[in-house]
């Protein structure tokens, strides 16, 4: 029986984000919030593992009270329980402070609901895009960590070992390691299922467990929120739009078009720049 924790984040829908041209900041008003889709792939794989090996799934989210909606969505998909970690003291957290709070949350989950075997996070979030929180949690909890996971081959429950495929720039790495482990999920890992009607009905009635700073008596207040966030954004700006002139090459056939293209290129500075020799025309 596995106890799997899935860390999720509610983020602005990146397809709806706009930039204020005067302030160069994100316009969040009217932008719908969604579950970070990499996190949903982590949840989907947790559901697959539970179906294979049995166990339970706890979903945790650090965020403002409206993030309850994101947790309800996870319940509708099949998670067993959901925990919202919310407090004004957590506001303004960077990846360092966020990983600290989530690590403390996972510790508390293990103490109250049984030892944690597998932790899933997305490879990154749509709004932050750093990919730092998952590894940060693993380091704080001294977990084995396997990042950029595109396939979970399986778990040997007797030996308590897991085998996965990691997607690297130059290929795929097959890795085996011991539980407990933290995995960061890629979208190639699986296809996220649709919530069934019974799941949606359960989610509509479900009330997530809510933990605040008061529920963490040993929490180091210097490591949370703005105080615990050394990251400084020195400057942000919107790149200037560049106009590109486009010209269509006309011609009756491919050879005619190719000759016209060569003539056009020869009228630029490219031949001099790259030392081209003019080709003989057929």
From TrEMBL:
Instruction: Please name the SUPFAM superfamilies in this protein's record.
Output: Adenine nucleotide alpha hydrolases-like
- InterPro entries per the UniProt record, alphabetical: ET-Flavoprotein_bsu_CS, ETF_a/b_N, ETF_b, ETF_beta_N, Rossmann-like_a/b/a_fold
Entry's SMART domains? ETF
Q: Give every Electron transfer flavoprotein alpha/beta-subunit N-terminal domain span.
A: 23-220
Q: Which Gene3D superfamilies match?
A: HUPs
| Cofactor(s) needed for function | AMP
Q: Name one GO molecular function term.
A: electron transfer activity
The UniProt entry's sequence similarity note says:
Belongs to the ETF beta-subunit/FixA family.
UniProt-recorded name of the protein: Electron transfer flavoprotein small subunit
**Native organism:** Effusibacillus dendaii
